[in-house]
């Protein structure tokens, strides 16, 4: 059963579940939005086929990717990468949320739910979930801080996308930082 | 004579195998490496053939000795691929008998002065160092790297999960003297 959290202010229920092909039109709402794509390596989607391609070839085979649903309707997505070998103790979180739902604490809730779920599913091997946030993406930095992540430092010119070098802030949460950690 | 004036950097050759085995097989020298000591000449030859020689940027640290240049360690700079190709990981090793003389610092400074031209897509060099490995932290600092933070439980080193300091040097940084 996927975890659910009630938003006490609005009687709205946030759930996480795998993405399906039938979610494509909802996905296009955020995937086509420049404001959502701003700090992502991808350009806003312009064609439904791109959305279908993402769901079939990236989302469904992904080791851990979920739709963020508000009262059952997908309004974003969240994922955690899985590493192998010497890097198996850490996973990287990423998420997107439709613009109209920003500022209500939904991303923070989804992050908390995802972190709890992956530590349960991949523990004891997974001990660290990290997030890399563009130094200009203050909103996302706040999301991770509110979700209990620690800011570890600024990694200069860490990645290049959309033709520019980006300084990224590294955040992490350890299994031992989370309540009821089984380690 | 200052040993750092007798240092050269060059690609590996198969004929380095016996010198390579001396430090690659040494527990002390390999303590903070993520791989286990190499114990046989065959393994050493295979490593040179399949890893060291085809490597995008690995240089033997050579000590000039009677016109011969003996490998006493190496510097390894490994760029990422795809979206990560602007970033390269730095590693190094030195035979234990040469520690404490500034050799790796000197070699790293030479490496840094040429690597950005050799690997033009790389804008960031980074190194991950264990918290206890203070000698390595000093090498990086003296070579002009900046410590950016502590990454908690970042990776496995020899079977244990470690906290690692992350250091970086950018193509745009000026080399500190």
Automatic annotation (TrEMBL), chain A:
It comes from the Eukaryota. Transmembrane segments: none annotated. It holds the Pfam family Acetyltransf_3. One of its GO terms (molecular function) is acyltransferase activity, transferring groups other than amino-acyl groups. Residues 14-167 form the N-acetyltransferase domain. InterPro entries: Acyl_CoA_acyltransferase, GNAT_dom. This is N-acetyltransferase domain-containing protein. It comes from Linum tenue.
Automatic annotation (TrEMBL), chain B:
Residues 7-173 form the N-acetyltransferase domain. It comes from the Eukaryota. One of its GO terms (molecular function) is acyltransferase activity, transferring groups other than amino-acyl groups. Pfam families: Acetyltransf_3. This is N-acetyltransferase domain-containing protein. The lineage of its organism: Eukaryota, Viridiplantae, Streptophyta, Embryophyta, Tracheophyta.
């Amino acid at each position: 059963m996927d975890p659910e959290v009630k938003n006490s202010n609005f009687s709205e229920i946030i759930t996480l579940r795998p993405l399906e092909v039938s979610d494509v039109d909802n996905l296009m709402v955020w995937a086509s939005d420049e404001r959502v794509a701003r700090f992502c390596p991808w350009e806003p989607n312009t064609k439904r086929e791109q959305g279908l391609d993402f769901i079939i070839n990236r989302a469904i085979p992904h080791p851990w990717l979920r739709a963020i649903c508000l009262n059952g309707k997908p309004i974003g997505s969240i994922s955690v990468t899985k590493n192998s070998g010497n890097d198996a103790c850490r996973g990287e979180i990423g998420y997107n949320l439709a613009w109209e739902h920003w500022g209500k604490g939904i991303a923070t809730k989804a992050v908390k739910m995802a972190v709890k779920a992956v530590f349960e599913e991949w523990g004891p091997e997974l001990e660290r979930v990290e997030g890399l946030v563009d130094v200009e993406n203050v909103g996302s930095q706040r999301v991770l801080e509110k979700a209990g992540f620690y800011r570890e430092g600024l990694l200069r010119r860490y990645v290049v996308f959309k033709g520019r070098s980006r300084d990224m802030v590294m955040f992490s949460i350890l299994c031992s930082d989370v309540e009821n950690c089984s380690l | 004579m200052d040993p750092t004036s007798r240092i050269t950097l060059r690609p590996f050759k198969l004929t380095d195998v016996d010198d390579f085995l001396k430090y690659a097989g040494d527990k002390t020298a390999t303590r903070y490496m993520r791989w286990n000591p190499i114990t046989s000449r065959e393994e050493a030859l295979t490593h040179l053939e399949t890893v060291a020689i085809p490597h995008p940027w690995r240089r033997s640290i050579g000590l000039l000795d009677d016109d011969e240049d003996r490998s006493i360690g190496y510097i390894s700079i490994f760029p990422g691929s795809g979206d990560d190709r602007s970033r390269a990981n730095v590693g190094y090793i030195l035979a234990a008998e040469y520690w404490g003389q500034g050799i790796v610092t000197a070699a790293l400074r030479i490496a840094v002065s040429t690597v950005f031209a050799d690997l033009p897509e790389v804008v960031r060099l980074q190194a991950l160092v264990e918290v206890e490995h203070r000698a390595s932290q000093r090498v990086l600092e003296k070579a002009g790297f900046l410590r950016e933070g502590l990454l908690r439980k970042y990776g496995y080193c020899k079977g244990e999960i470690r906290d690692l300091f992350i250091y970086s040097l950018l193509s745009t940084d000026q080399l500190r003297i």
